[in-house]
């Protein structure tokens, strides 16, 4: 099963992707984690990304797509994957479609976690306080939500126009949201113990 998991910052994508990885037995691919791992490993792509980041620039779509292609070629992704944090804009969505078409592994599902913006703000502010995260201070949270609305939200429309999008209420307990996602995938959640 090949899934893109969309949602604003604080919507629970990372939490749900980890739960889905366990439930479905597929790889959880976070582009942020992937980027950090490539840089730490000193790969060719990692060195290129590090040079760009040290110059204060954003890593290009080409570098991220190259890392993504390498990651999807790893054995644990053979059974499928959950993409968390990618695509972030329509150009990336088109590039992802082209990559997956070339690999013969098109997406099966695109899931959008819907959470009200006021609740997202509260979640992110709470996370900042609990974890001491500087990237979740009030002004940064507002900026992240603005960037999401401007750049990433159009990805929702892109997939909806193709009939590939399934919207899931992202409010509730972790298990309740997981159950909704599994239902959208046509699966039943299985709980340990």
Topology of this structure?
Blueprint: E1 2-7, H1 13-24, E2 27-30, H2 31-41, H3 44-54, H4 61-72, E3 81-84, H5 90-103, E4 109-114, H6 117-131, H7 138-161, E5 165-169, H8 174-184
Parallel strand pairs: 1-3, 1-4, 2-3, 4-5
Descriptive overview:
This protein has 193 residues and is α/β, with parallel strands linked by helices. The protein contains eight helices and five strands, in the order E-H-E-H-H-H-E-H-E-H-H-E-H. It has a single domain (2-184), classed as P-loop containing nucleotide triphosphate hydrolases (Rossmann fold), CATH 3.40.50.300. Helix 2 crosses helix 3 (44-54), helix 2 (31-41) packs across helix 4 and helix 6 (117-131) packs across helix 7 (138-161). 57% of the residues lie in helices and 13% in strands.
**Which runs of at least 5 residues are low in confidence (pLDDT < 50)?**
none
* N-to-C order of helices and strands: EHEHHHEHEHHEH
- Can you tell me the CATH class? Alpha Beta
State the domain count. 1
User: How many E strands?
Assistant: 5
Strand order, main sheet: write it out. 2-3-1-4-5
Here the CATH topology equals Rossmann fold
The biggest beta sheet, please? 5 strands, parallel
CATH H-level homologous superfamily name: P-loop containing nucleotide triphosphate hydrolases
Number of helices: 8
Distance between the termini: 25 Å
CATH 2nd-level architecture: 3-Layer(aba) Sandwich
The averaged pLDDT comes out at: 88
Helical coverage, percent range:
55-70%
Shape descriptor: globular
- What portion of residues belong to β-strands? 5-15%
- Rg from C-alpha positions? 17 Å
